[in-house]
Amino acid sequence: MENRTDEPIKLTRDCEVVAVPAGHTLTLPQGTDVMVTQSLGGSYTLLVPSYGGLFRLANRDADGIGKETTPAETLVSSGQALTGEALEKEVWQALKTCFDPEIPVNIVDLGLIYDCAAQPLPEGGYKAIVRFTLTAQGCGMGQFLKADIKKRLLSVPGVRETDVELVWDPPWNQSMISVCAKQQLGIE
Q: What does residue 184 show for φ and ψ, rounded to 5 degrees?
């Protein structure tokens, strides 16, 4: 993870961003001062004082803040389709590459994944089934996180389909955060 930068960076071009936590998209014009607050999972969370808040910048637009864009990562170097336990393990690993844009912890350790399974498809391959939640019902990032989860699941060799659903039961609370993540966040 890159540390927060206290020095403003001027956007070198217009960049589409997503408001955090509202979830709406907008374009920040070239020359806008931004500060990187977090860089995890291939996206950047930017503090944009002139717009009064935080915004998520996708990896594809990283050049706008002077960073290199990186190609979507393949989780298994062989590229061969996985099955059974190996597939489920890689699905969980793929989920660990998704990060909350406000909290520097992956969605698995944050306790946002309620259910995860890989179901064989009749025509071959698997469907990855994930049920997840958000830290607050008012958060507008649900659809963006859902799309990120789907994209990462489809990068796992053997996963041909996804079924990703945002659920609210049970309501998320801090007790769902892993011990390691609590230590990282300084939560007792």
A: -60, -40
3-state secondary structure of 12: coil
Third-level CATH fold of 84-185: GMP Synthetase; Chain A, domain 3 (3.30.300)
Q: What is the pLDDT of residues 70-116, one digit of tens each?
A: 765 433 444 667 777 888 899 999 999 999 888 889 999 999 999 99
**What's the N-to-C CA distance of the chain in angstroms?**
22
Non-local (6+) Cβ contacts of 63 within 8 A are: 12, 13, 69
Structure token digits, residue 41: 């999972």
Structure tokens at 52: 């009064």
Closest CA to 22 of 165, 125, 136: 136
**Domain covering 9-65 assigned CATH 2.30.110.10 in the classification:** no
pTM over 0.85: no
Q: What are 124's two structure tokens? A: 């071959």
